[in-house]
């Protein structure tokens, strides 16, 4: 019996507390990855985890089974409904499956991350870059706020800055908040995250903003994530292949910082494209419980906490934050205009795009 997509998605969600979870199809069944490491299999609507002594100690019931004929024995997980339990199992498996890494000199550098991340995918990508650069990371999440005073980051540190791409541009709110940071010829890794359509001028624009603020771009990446308005496009990305790209990108960036770097050539145009859009906004269904999470976390204050089912169209930037933070899953884009746009968009951008990376000239 093949796995049902609903069961596979359920397992991915149940394990999500462990890290970046991806299920990749393999001859009718699925390999389960956490942060790029294979931790188990999903076969015949059952979960199998690679056996380790550390995980054995966590199991409510130790059962060995072969996921398919000719396979080795795996832990057969009898309880898949406890999210914390599954996340602990998967996280422990990753720790015990991953060989210890020899720390390079670049791992000792101090890293600062700055990101605008409404749906948390940009955050995930920036964090993945940073963890491959340093064990000492200072974080500025500028999605809902930014420092009141100007922040200066010295030349002996490394900055990783990330934004989502909105209509081919850096979000205006993110651009404004980024200008509160100042570098002293400080190296910066520029990251733009987009939903499988195109990054257009966003990578170049982000580089220009950081240059104006006193930073020097060592590398830039345009990475794919699930589209925030049309989620069938780029679904479940970044996946294991993307995370491998991000790791290689971070390692090459660290090498350039250590050796020294010069100028960088990037894709994009000046003047930047004029952003467009369609007249659609996320609203709530009858499932809305008026808990107020969407209003509290909306970056622009477009949702009235006393009447959270609607949205102020003059403030909403269609970032999707309210959709992902809604515990009742009540908010989304609705209506005939959305349905028609989604059909066209899903068809036009169904083909998988790959990540693009640029590096400064090595001195």
Structure overview:
The protein is an alpha/beta fold and 363 residues long. The protein folds into three domains: 5-97, YgaC/TfoX-N like chaperone (Yope Regulator, Chain: A, 2-Layer Sandwich), CATH 3.30.1460; 105-271 and 351-359, Rossmann fold; 282-334, Alpha-Beta Plaits. It is 28% helix and 23% strand. The chain is built from ten helices and 16 strands. It has helices spanning 5-14, 53-56, 83-97, 121-131, 172-178, 202-212, 240-259, 293-297, 321-325, 336-348; strands at 21-26, 29-34, 37-43, 46-49, 64-65, 74-76, 110-115, 136-141, 151-153, 158-164, 181-183, 186-194, 215-224, 282-284, 331-333, 356-359. It has a six-stranded antiparallel β-sheet. A hairpin with a 2-residue loop joins strand 1 (21-26) and strand 2. The N and C termini lie far apart (57 Å).
What are the salient characteristics of this protein?
363 residues, alpha/beta, Yope Regulator, Chain: A, Rossmann fold, Alpha-Beta Plaits, 3 domains, six-stranded antiparallel β-sheet, 23% strand
């Amino acid at each position: 019996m093949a796995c049902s997509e609903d069961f596979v998605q359920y397992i991915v969600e149940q394990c999500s507390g462990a890290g970046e979870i991806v299920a990749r199809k393999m001859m009718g069944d699925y390999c389960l990855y956490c942060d790029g490491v294979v931790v188990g299999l999903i076969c015949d609507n059952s979960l199998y985890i690679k056996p380790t002594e550390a995980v054995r100690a966590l199991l409510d019931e130790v059962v060995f089974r072969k996921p398919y004929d000719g396979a080795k024995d795996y832990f057969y997980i009898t309880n898949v409904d406890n999210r914390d339990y599954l996340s602990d199992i998967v996280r422990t498996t990753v720790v015990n499956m991953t060989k210890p890494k020899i720390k390079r000199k670049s791992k000792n550098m101090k890293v600062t991350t700055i990101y605008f991340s409404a749906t948390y995918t940009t955050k995930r990508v920036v964090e993945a870059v940073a963890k491959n650069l340093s064990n000492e990371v200072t974080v500025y999440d500028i999605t809902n706020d930014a420092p009141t005073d100007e922040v200066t980051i010295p030349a002996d540190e490394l900055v990783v800055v990330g934004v989502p791409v909105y209509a081919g541009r850096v979000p205006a709110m993110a651009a404004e908040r980024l200008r509160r940071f100042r570098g002293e010829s400080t190296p910066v890794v520029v990251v733009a995250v987009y939903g499988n359509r195109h990054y257009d001028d966003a990578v170049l624009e982000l580089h220009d903003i950081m240059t104006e603020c006193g930073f020097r771009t060592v590398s830039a990446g345009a990475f794919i994530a699930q589209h925030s308005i049309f989620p069938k496009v780029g679904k479940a990305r970044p996946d294991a292949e993307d995370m491998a790209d991000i790791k290689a990108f971070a390692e090459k960036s660290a090498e350039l910082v250590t050796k020294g770097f010069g100028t960088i050539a990037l894709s994009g145009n000046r003047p930047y494209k004029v952003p467009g859009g369609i007249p659609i906004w996320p609203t709530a269904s009858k499932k809305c419980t008026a808990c107020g999470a969407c209003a509290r976390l909306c970056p622009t204050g477009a949702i009235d906490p006393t009447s959270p089912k609607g949205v102020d169209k003059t403030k909403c930037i269609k970032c999707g934050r309210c959709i992902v933070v809604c515990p009742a899953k009540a908010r989304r884009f609705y209506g005939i205009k959305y349905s028609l746009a989604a059909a066209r968009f899903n068809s036009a951008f169904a083909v998988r795009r790959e990540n693009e990376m640029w590096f400064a000239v090595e001195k």
